[in-house]
Design goal:
The protein has no helices and 11 strands. It has strands at residues 3-7, 10-13, 18-25, 33-39, 46-51, 58-60, 68-73, 78-83, 92-100, 103-107, 111-116.
Length: 117
């Protein structure tokens, strides 16, 4: 069973950048698809970005528009999310997830990102 711990959230001004990290333990990290999701109060959790086990393929939600980049380091069991050009609509709790091509079944506790306008 893989455990995921997010870090790097915080408060940033609109137009700024933030880098989230997710440390994985307890599983074969290099075999997992990894992803980032986010959730705001009253809304369902939504997909942000994901990356294949090797790191060769990435996938992004339409609203990302090239602003966010996911990367992974299989040697360090880490996945990161670089977020640029942040706006108030990006304010949410961001969750790291691990899974397969069929879906994500392992989740971290989340890290809060707040963008002030």
């Amino acid at each position: 069973q893989v455990q995921l711990v997010e870090s790097g959230g915080g408060l940033v001004q609109a137009g700024g950048s933030l880098r989230l990290s997710c440390a994985a333990s307890g599983g074969t990290f290099s075999s997992y698809f990894m992803g980032w999701f986010r959730q705001t109060p009253g809304k369902e959790r939504e997909f942000v970005v994901s990356i294949s086990p090797s790191g060769a393929r990435t996938y992004s939600a339409a609203f990302v528009k090239g602003r966010f980049t996911i990367s992974r380091d299989n040697a360090k069991n880490m996945v990161s999310l670089q977020m640029n050009s942040l706006n108030a609509e990006d304010t949410a709790v961001y969750y790291c997830a691990a899974g397969t091509s069929a879906g994500f079944g392992h989740w971290g506790l989340g890290t809060q990102v707040t963008v002030s306008s």
